[in-house]
Design brief:
alpha/beta; 5-stranded parallel sheet; 10 strands
């Protein structure tokens, strides 16, 4: 079986070498890492950049099985044939081929820019940390390939003229079904209003008269993947990362790392067989954490652990005031946050991400 390709667009040779080295341990036997040759003469130097890229991606045999395109947000130093190439042109060409795009910035990550960013451009923002970025690229590439397999098993479009066909599924219902958690469909739909690009593709595929061609299926995979990886898995509400889960359960993050504590909530973990699962950045289903707490006849995860007689337990303190219990998650510091020190709901965060907050001080600066 041909390897899936991760294709990089980068005009800085030092970054290419560095990223190639960092990602190599994560490639294993199923992935290949290639760099788009910005110094090679293209088939044509006429027309818009995206049109030239569409032709280049089509003619290169080594680019025949691209799982993910990765691009620097700033390609301004590209020379000669590709001078003036932009991330926007790369993403438009990728869209024609139905290829997902992840991007990063080499410039210092400005907290204000990151927090004000509203997902919806169809791109996935990669971590600023170099090592995390490399691992995330591999996780994303495999995740899209895995999601493609799962989508092939589903038929989100009704068959025209079939009286027994099911009602058209909402974006949340479709993704919830694919992930094996149909009960969370309404909650997922509350994330829909923050990624119009992805949602438009999903609705197109799930419409009553949708002709589910291979092109539409490919775009559906990209749309679902971007929605899941860049919104649902980033803003705590449905899925919770490690610190968000610890905060929600009222368990100190250092305590929550212990295997004996993790085992209590093992049934709620986002399984490794699901798209974009990352063993180094585990996640938990919020509704299943609720089930664990409710089944134990408790009010918090901390109480569940106390009831099981686990030792050396501590509550989860707010990162602003250690005397307060947390419960929420700060999107600026990635630390637990209390209701008292929270700004409340942030208007540009997805409505369903009700655990995603900012401290009052950070919010005032914005």
């Amino acid at each position: 079986m041909a390897k899936s390709v991760i294709l990089l667009f980068e005009d800085n040779d030092e970054i290419v070498v560095s990223l190639r080295k960092a990602i190599k341990p994560h490639l294993k036997t199923d992935m290949a890492f290639e760099v788009f040759p910005l110094r090679d003469k293209p088939a044509t130097d006429e027309g818009a950049f995206e049109d030239r890229l569409v032709k280049e991606l089509k003619k290169r045999k080594d680019f025949a099985n691209i799982a993910l395109i990765v691009t620097d947000r700033d390609l301004s130093t590209a020379v000669k044939y590709w001078r003036g190439l932009s991330e926007a042109a790369v993403s438009r060409a990728a869209k024609v081929h139905g290829i997902p795009v992840a991007c990063y910035r080499l410039a210092k990550d400005e907290i204000e820019d990151r927090l004000r960013r509203v997902a919806g451009d169809g791109l996935i923002e990669l971590p600023a940390n170099h090592a995390d970025r490399a691992r995330s690229i591999a996780v994303l590439a495999r995740g899209f390939k895995h999601l493609q397999t799962l989508v092939q098993k589903e038929n989100p479009a009704n068959k025209k003229g079939n009286a027994q066909s099911e009602p058209t599924m909402s974006p949340g219902a479709l993704l919830a079904k694919i992930l094996g958690q149909p009960i969370i469909a309404p909650k997922l739909d509350t994330y829909a209003c923050r990624d119009e690009t992805a949602i438009a593709e999903i609705l197109r595929a799930s419409g009553d008269n949708a002709n589910l061609t291979q092109t539409i299926k490919t775009r559906l995979v990209v749309a679902l993947g971007v929605w899941l990886a860049d919104l649902i898995m980033v803003y705590p509400g449905v899925l919770l990362n490690e610190k968000a889960a610890a905060s929600y359960l009222d368990i100190d993050p250092t305590v929550f790392k212990r295997a004996v504590v993790r085992k209590v909530f093992q049934s709620a973990q986002y399984k490794s067989v699901l798209p974009f699962a990352d063993s180094e950045a585990p996640m938990w289903w919020r509704h299943l954490l609720d089930d664990v707490v409710t089944d134990a006849d408790c009010e918090t995860g901390l109480q569940v652990c106390q009831k099981k007689k686990l030792q050396k337990l501590k509550f989860c303190p707010c990162s602003v005031d250690k005397t307060l219990h947390a419960g929420f998650y700060c999107m600026a510091t990635f630390e637990p946050l209390s209701a008292e020190n929270s700004s409340g709901r942030v208007s540009w965060f997805p409505p369903g991400a009700d655990l995603a907050r900012l401290s009052k001080r950070t919010y005032q600066k914005l």
